[in-house]
Amino acid sequence: MDDNRPALTQLAIVSSAYIAAQMLSDVASLRIIAVLGFSMDAGTLVYPFTFTLRDMVHKVGGRRVARVLIVAAAVVNLLMALLFWLVAKLPPDVTVGPQLEFGMVLAPVWRIVIASIIAEVASELTDTEIYQLWVNRFRQRLQWMRVLVSNGVSVPLDSALFCGLAFIGRMPFGVVVSIFVANILLKGIVTLVSLPWIYLVKERRAA
User: Fold this and answer.
1) Rounded to an integer, what distance in angstroms lies between the CA atom of residue 126 and that of residue 170?
2) pTM assigned to the model
3) In DSSP terms, which residues pair with 33 in a beta bridge?
4) Among 30, 73, 105, 106, which one has the highest count of C-beta atoms within 10 angstroms of its own C-beta?
């Protein structure tokens, strides 16, 4: 029997969850919502979970796998946006009707798409390196701190890059600041809630 089979199963599950969360958050980011008096892109409801999911992938598969997954997610999100753009541009079947709703809802806003991808790649690669530094220093001890420390750096970086690239110059500065603050607060809460997840997977091999 392959002793690595349980670890490979865990890796497949958390990697799939990571890609799914990335895709859902990028689609949801097209809408700005109001929550508890703060403005935020709706992708913030899903995206914060990707940081802890990335940490879980790193624990099971190692740093190289985590890096590959981050780049793969960026490519998938770009291809998704290109597909939505193409479908919105193709002529509709006239026997069905104009079907304008698809383009109105899912046609990509390229500024947001590019901002999302840049922020995701930069912040999650940073998360990877900080997580690895922690593992090199403390090994199996204080695993919850791996998540807290790495997310504590990558979350503000992600929010700053995304808000700056996507919204500055397009929205009132006060709204941009509100989105940034809301991002930090919600992502911080999600980090604290998801800290125990790191114990749900086993370290398959040294990163």
Assistant:
1) 27
2) 0.86
3) 40
4) 73
Query: What number of CA atoms fall less than 13 Å from residue 125's CA on the CB side?
Result: 13
What span, in angstroms and rounded, lies between the C-alpha atoms of 200 and 14?
10
Q: What is the pLDDT of residues 108-156, one digit of tens each?
A: 778 888 998 999 999 999 999 999 999 999 988 889 999 999 999 999 9
Distance CA 51, CA 170 (A): 27
Q: Can you tell me whether residue 168 is helix, strand or coil?
A: strand
Q: Where are the domains of the chain?
A: 5-200
Phi first, then psi: give them for residue 85, nearest 5 degrees: -65, -45
Tokens of 67: 């890096």
How many Å separate Cα 150 from the centre of its chain? 14
Q: Span 5-200: which CATH code?
A: 1.10.1760
d(CA 48, CA 176): 18
Report the alpha-carbon distance of residue 90 to residue 169 in Å, rounded.
31
Contact status, residue 183 vs residue 159, Cβ threshold 8 Å: yes
Strand partners, 20: none
